[in-house]
Structures are given as structure tokens and as C-alpha cells.
Amino acid sequence: xxxxxxxxxxxxxxxxxxxxxxxxxxxxxxxxxxxxxxxxxxxxxxxxxxxxxxxxxxxxxxxxxxxxxxxxxxxxxxxxxxxxxxxxxxxxxxxxxxxxxxxxxxxxxxxxxxxxxxxxxxxxxxxxxxxxxxxxxxxxxxxxxxxxxxxxxxxxxxxxxxxxxxxxxxxxxxxxxxxxxxxxxxxxxxxxxxxxxxxxxxxxxxxxxxxxxxxxxxxxxxxxxxxxxxxxxxxxxxxxxxxxxxxxxxxxxxxxxxxxxxxxxxxxxxxxxxxxxxxxxxxxxxxxxxxxxxxxxxxxxxxxxxxxxxxxxxxxxxxxxxxxxxxxxxxxxxxxxxxxxxxxxxxxxxxxxxxxxxxxxxxxxxxxxxxxxxxxxxxxxxxxxxxxxxxxxxxxxxxxxxxxxxxxxxxxxxxxxxxxxxxxxxxxxxxxxxxxxxxxxxxxxxxxxxxxxxxxxxxxxxxxxxxxxxxxxxxxxxxxxxxxxxxxxxxxxxxxxxxxxxxxxxxxxxxxxxxxxxxxxxxxxxxxxxxxxxxxxxxxxxxxxxxxxxxxxxxxxxxxxxxxxxxxxxxxxxxxxxxxxxxxxxxxxxxxxxxxxxxxxxxxxxxxxxxxxxxxxxxxxxxxxxxxxxxxxxxxxxxxxxxxxxx
Length: 647
What we know:
Elements: H1 24-50, E1 57-58, E2 64-65, H2 68-77, H3 94-112, H4 115-140, E3 149-150, E4 172-173, E5 177-178, H5 198-203, H6 216-231, H7 238-250, H8 255-284, H9 288-296, H10 308-312, H11 326-333, H12 340-346, H13 355-365, E6 369-373, E7 397-401, E8 423-429, H14 431-445, H15 448-458, H16 462-468, H17 473-505, E9 515-520, H18 522-536, E10 543-549, H19 557-564, E11 571-575, H20 580-585, E12 607-611, H21 621-632, H22 640-646
């Protein structure tokens, strides 16, 4: 069953009256803009499945080989070079072979949308439309009553905007008073001419609208209102986060405004959850029925109460609340404004399922598994959600997974480059196996046999070695050093990925917040398994963005279409054709479906590729280059100061 995140209206809600705070025109144009953004999001989901997949080039015995695609590109791009010729290939004329496959491309493209992918597309869109419908309905339910204002001073008009055309609600009333316009539009909607953040605008193109020309405070207020409405759905999904970022660019607001808004809401809600849950725990036994009723008749029923910690961070105050009264802010948040249970669930604070018990569930499936905060608990394992410092709480999570370790104490070292906009954790999993793998890889690359074998691979390309299954004798001699530890690591990575998926979708370790995943080597393999499990269980709306580096997993497009179906934001494949160690280690797997860590993903719309041009220590380089890669791909939450210091 598809995950029911964000789809429920949780009963009838009383309309929130924002008369005098925003105008009818501003509300109507806000609804129009949110509808346009969410429609684009729906199209993006559909496009993931509608893009024609790339058909691999036909090799021996009728097999279609994804590994031959880079070889063809290599030949076409460097046709005059002989230093990297396709030595030893049984099909030396790849261009001719490629032409022969054109006859079957159309047939295979029609068959590419397997019944499983068609069903996945259908369910992903059904889930999204349910969430979209709830969001739009809640924005439409905001009440803004018509106000009479002196002529020439229509409330809520942006700077430089002219009067509304006749016939659009601007007709006069007696006594020199005018009716509020139904829209700010005086012509075709436009996009901002000068973006405050061009990088973010390139990634989330602004939707043409009229609201961007309002003054800064009014645009901040509109973003704030939508933020509160989305939180009133009692969960903050990856779709909600993508909507807010797109709204930020469409309103031409600096990303710092959105981040600051997310930060103060996270800290206010987290503190309120802990404070109110403590009060509730004291009175729960003696006043169980009274307490239950207190939550039921809270803000959603219009009492106008607002939890003190929320007021403490400026929600519902004249200045930081951007003009929203406590009553208005409480109404927008609904029952989330003072409901300890709902606020706690947002952060994974669940009285019936303490964090320690959740961790016990993990350890039943895998011997060594835990989450270590990058910021907030000085390297201690995350054991009790109530003990995590409020000042480090965020409304989104980043979970990082290492793929090998060179020293026991290096579990968090590679990930200190992660910034503080997200609540970041490093997954501790199978430390002994990862340390053994790291040691064996380091021993192998320092050997003379590896240097000799590497030179021979460079003369042929790693792809020809994989396709032909012919490897330098020197490498085969040292294979016993690394093959066993790699095989053990692959098995453990798949188990860890399944446990991580369970922690996210069933144990609710992260609460009801979007999760981003980052990993390299076997850590990326664990993420691959996690996403496949989430797709199989139809767990949409949980995963925000994902980056996988040096991934030992297939590069076949239909695999990555499946992965992208559960990733709302960016899905980035980081690869390098120079990762000879990965190619050699992966040789015993089914290479007919390609190797993601060696080549770009083709035929999967929405999947980004980033090529690492230099790996000084081969596959081992990913551990030290995490920060540089994150910076280069434009990952939004990376500490650039730490990256610069690490160079």
C-alpha cells in the first residue's frame, strides 16, 4: 500500500481568517502559484517514466551490454587516438554494431515500460495528487473578507503595480470606496528579472507570477503562511519541502529566508513537543480523559492558543511573525500548534515507541547498526530523541553511510563537511567488516602487482576488461586479498540497506520529516537497496535528495527509474571511469546491466550524473573527496569552510 503521508485532512478544519493580513488578490494569486508549482511537480513525476530509455549496445551472444555504451562514446570522441583503442574486443566496429541495434530500439522502447513500472508510475501519481489536493484545499480555505479602502490606496498592492483592469473586481462603491481586486495581474504573469540566487533558480526555475513584485516583507509573509499550512498536515514531507523551495524562488526570496524559517519552526516545535509532553506525562494518569479532551479542543477548534515555545521563536508575534496574530498563526497550524503528540511525532518522539526500543529492533536484523549525530551529541550514538538538543533540531534529515573505513575512529570524519541546515547523522553499520575491507583495499593498491595491473587496464579501458572478463594476471594474484572482504561487505550492505528502509518507513526513526541520503562505495550500495525496498513498498514522499558515489550497483535505466520514483528531489550518480578497483571488485557481479560507479546513467529522466575526473587513490579516494564532490554538485547543505580547509 502507498504510504499515506500528507493525504489526510484529519477531519474538518475551521477556516482561518486572515482579513487585514493579506488581500483577496494576494490569496487568489497565491493559490494560482501553488497550483502551478504542484502541477509542474506532477509533470516531473510523469516525465521520469515517460522519457525513452537508452537501449544498450548489443554484444556477444545477443546480450545487450550497458558497459559498451561508454566504449562507443570513447571511440566517437577520440577517433584519432590509438592509446585507448578497443584492444581485444570481439566487435571492434562498435559503430556498425550500434547501427544494427537501431532496428530493435523502437520495439524495446515500447516494451521498456514494464507492467511493474507502469503500476509504479500510477501509484506515485495517485499519491501525489492526493497530497496536492489537500494542500490546495487548505490554502483555498483561508478566509479573506472583502475590505473597503480609500480609492487609490488598494491594500496589498505591490510596488510599481498599476490598478486592476475594469471588470476584474475593481468596480466602485459609493462614497469613493473601491472593491478589492480579485487578482494582482495586470497582464501576463512574469518571472523575476534579477534572481537573488541564480544557482537555486536554475535548479528550481521560478514560475511566472505577480506576487514576486510585492515588497519583501509581504513575500516573506506568504512563504510563512504556506509553511504553517503544510505543517498543519501533521507531517512535513519531501513533497512539502520541494514545494517550499520552489515557492522561495518564484517569490524571488533569498534561500537564507527559507532556511531561517525552517530553523526557527523546527526549534519552536521541538521545544514545544518536549515541554508539552513532559507536562502531559505528569497529568496523564490522573487526568487521562481530561487531557485527551484538551488536545481535541485545542487550536483546531479555534481557541487561539499557541504553545509558548512557538511564540518564543517569533511565531504569531508582530515582528518575527510578519504580522500574523497568535490566533491566526494557531489557526494556520491547526492542532499542531499545541498538540504534544503530533509535534513529537514530527521529530520521532513517540511515547509508545521510545528511540531505544527502535534501536533494539535494528540490532535484531544486523549486529552493528546505529545513528551518530554529526552535530549535537559529541559523537555519541542517538539513543533518546528527547535528549537531543533542541538547538540542533531541524525539519529535515541527512543520513550518511560510509562504504569502507581505514580506522575505527573515522566513522564521522568524512562527514564533518555536512552543514547545519539539516539534522545530519552518520550511520554506524558493520564497523568490523568495513574496517577489514578498507585495510585490504589499502594493502592491494600499495602492492607492486596492483601498479602493474593498473597500467595494463589503462591501456585497454576498464570496460573492455569487464566485457571480456579478461584481467591482468598480476591482479588475479592479489584478488584473494580483497575479494572475500568485498563479498562479505556486499552482503552486509544489502542487509544494512533493508534495515535503513525499515527504520525510515516503519520505525519512524526520523519522525515525519524528509530524509536525504549520501553514501560512497558499499554505503551507496546500502542506499541502493534502501531505495529499492521503499519503491517496492510504495513509500513515496519520504526521501528528499540522494547522492551515491562509486556505487557498486547496476546502471541500467529501468533500475534508476525505480529509484527515482521514491526520490522527490535530486538523485545524483557520481562516477569515474578511472575507478579500476571498483571494476575489478564488481567483475563477479552481473555486469550486463552496467556499473553505476563507472558510467553515467542514461535514459532515466531526473537522474543527474557527476563525473569525478581524478581519483589519486582509486576507489579509496571517495572517502577524502566527499566534501569536494558535495560542493561541486551544488549540494545545498555543505560547510564550504571545512571543505576548503580539507584541501
